[in-house]
Design goal:
Distance between the termini: 40 Å
CATH topology of the largest domain: Rossmann fold
Strand order of the largest sheet: 3-2-1-4-5-6-11
Number of helices: 13
Length: 412
């Protein structure tokens, strides 16, 4: 038997016309939507099941940063009222994906059936993604229209778009991505200058939605899209969420720096399965991930560090990932020492609560009228936009300080 319709799927009792509210004004009964790109993937499905479970009182909020003191005090919306929709090229029903994740141990086995009604309602709000067969101008128009319809049909005050699509190769210095005018001209002429993640980002920004670049794909990073976000007055956050080995690195590396211990080499070996592992088996796609994983270490230590960084696809691991790191360092009078650690975790279970956190935090940023990259969100990312800080504790303090800031007069 399915659980009662969760709180976040119920229509507001107020008869107020939400479309007349100022875009930056927070309201106690505000309705926020999350639009997932890659909505039938493992991370998006786990986040959707998690949101439904929390709203129905069927799960704990373990792993949700926004439940911690100093962050929860920022008057964030509860996790429950988030309304979920999204795009995906996969035709696998969300409920079937949830059942597969439960069978592999990613989700508690009882949740897919207990939350069947809620999953069906989310399924009804999912729309087809895009690919090479569709012109980019037509695709961006259609994708933007889907997001606007989602917002209007569900009487939402704001929608946060989260890119959870497969990792893409990095982009070079394509002239069409250098500025917004060049990009618009290329799209109008039938060219295809945008990688898929940036095409989705363009559509989201044109729909008036803040964006979270959860993966290392180009997304909103090209200069033309940064310009578009600024023109539309929209905040964005990214990129490449740190959920495992890099999370440990950004907590551990400052220890060596503040103890004046010289790190000589830091070798990292990552094994992962699942769809992410299959995608990263391509050297071109893995280049984006390797770049973001390596970026913070030199910044924290203050000098280059030798050592290989490998990502290897191991299908048998499924949604689990294992990382083994070997750190060689030098102490007083040149004495050589080493540290090793192993991190083994479930990727979707680590990522999903951060997705919900970022939806809530970016809704606050939008309500406060922020524009451009929100540096305070760097706590969540390997390659933090709007910030050069990589030390985890310093990033945490920046996030807490941001949450303690009062909203501008007349806003949230």
């Amino acid at each position: 038997m399915s659980a009662p319709t969760p709180e976040h799927e119920q229509q507001p009792s107020s008869t107020e016309d939400v479309s007349t509210r100022p875009p930056g004004r927070h309201h106690p009964q505000e309705r926020v939507g999350a639009w997932f790109l890659g909505a039938r993937g493992s991370v998006a499905t786990t986040a959707a099941v998690g949101a439904l479970a929390l709203a129905a009182g069927l799960g704990e909020r373990t792993g949700c940063v926004t439940e911690l003191p100093g962050i929860a005090d920022a008057a964030l919306l509860p996790t429950g009222p988030i309304v979920i929709g999204g795009h995906d090229v996969s035709a696998t029903p969300l409920a079937k994906k949830a059942e597969a994740l439960a069978a592999s141990g990613v989700l508690p086995p009882h949740l897919p059936s207990a939350l069947g009604d809620g999953l069906a309602e989310i399924e009804a709000r999912l729309r087809p993604g895009t690919g090479p067969g569709e012109s980019q101008r037509a695709a961006t128009d259609r994708l933007s229209a889907d997001i606007r319809a989602f917002r209007d049909d569900n009487a939402l005050d704001r929608v946060i778009v989260v890119d959870l699509t497969s990792t893409e190769p990095p982009v070079g210095a394509e002239p069409a991505l250098a500025d917004l005018e060049s990009l618009e001209r290329a799209l109008d002429s039938g060219e295809t200058p945008l990688p898929l993640s940036s095409l989705y980002a363009y559509a989201a920004l044109r729909a008036g939605c803040p964006l979270v670049a959860f993966t290392p794909s180009p997304s909103v990073r090209p200069a033309a899209l940064v310009e578009l976000a600024a023109r539309e007055g929209l905040p964005w956050a990214g990129s490449d969420a740190k959920t495992g080995e890099t999370l440990v690195k950004t907590a551990l590396a400052p220890m060596f720096a503040t103890r004046a211990l010289q790190v000589r080499s830091w070798a990292s070996y990552n094994l992962l399965g699942g769809g992410d592992g299959a995608t990263l088996a391509s050297p071109e796609n893995a280049a984006s991930k390797i770049t973001t994983k390596a970026r913070g270490l030199e910044s924290i230590l203050g000098h280059p560090v030798d050592g290989p960084l490998h990502i290897d696809y191991t299908p048998d691991l499924g949604d689990w990932k294992t990382a083994w790191d070997h750190i060689s360092f030098e102490g007083f009078l040149g004495v050589r020492m080493s540290l090793q650690f192993t991190w083994a975790g479930c990727d979707s279970a680590l990522a999903a609560p951060l997705v919900l956190d970022l939806v809530r935090l970016m809704a606050r940023a939008h309500a406060m009228g922020e524009t451009g990259p929100v540096g305070a969100m760097g706590f969540f990312f390997k390659d933090p936009a709007g910030s050069d800080e990589h030390r985890l504790s310093a990033q945490w303090q920046a996030l807490a300080d941001w949450c303690a800031r009062p909203a501008p007069e007349g806003q949230a």
